[in-house]
Amino acid sequence: MHQTESWGSYMATRTSLGDPLERIGRLASENAVVIFSISSCCMCHAIKRLFCGMGVNPTVYELDEDPRGKEMEKALMRLLGSSSAVPVVFIGGKLVGAMDRVMASHINGTLVPLLKEAGALWL
């Protein structure tokens, strides 16, 4: 799946009920900014502070507080092709990525337009 591909089109091909990727896709598309996190993770805390500091109110799913969180964490690792799954950010239902992608977008000036387009930021 491409980095900014819509979850809707990706998930249209997934049909099995209870699929963690299906659940992630549904949750990611329900709000303008969605962060999959682990409550004790310092990188997750930093990404949440980044968005809050920008005036964005992200929806945060703490995987360590979800009964199916481990399944979702493994699915996110497969999706990202990484050994670390969190934090993972979706904006406007589209996968932005992990901390490195979000920070790169912030530094190169593409994060704010994404947030505006998703209706998460009005300035």
From TrEMBL:
Domain Glutaredoxin positions: 33-96
GO-annotated cellular components: cytoplasm
Superkingdom of origin: Eukaryota
Keywords in alphabetical order: Cytoplasm, Redox-active center
Predominant subcellular localization, coarse grouping: cytoplasm
UniProt keyword Cytoplasm, yes or no: yes
Coiled-coil region list: none
CDD domains registered for this protein in UniProt: GRX_GRXh_1_2_like (cd03419)
Location in or out of the cell: Cytoplasm
Presence of the UniProt keyword Cytoplasm in the record: yes
Pfam families linked: Glutaredoxin
Family annotation (PANTHER family): GLUTAREDOXIN (PTHR10168)
Family the entry assigns: Belongs to the glutaredoxin family. CC-type subfamily.
NCBIfam families: GlrX-like_plant
Record-given protein name: Glutaredoxin domain-containing protein
Protein source organism: Dovyalis caffra
Organism classification: Eukaryota, Viridiplantae, Streptophyta, Embryophyta, Tracheophyta
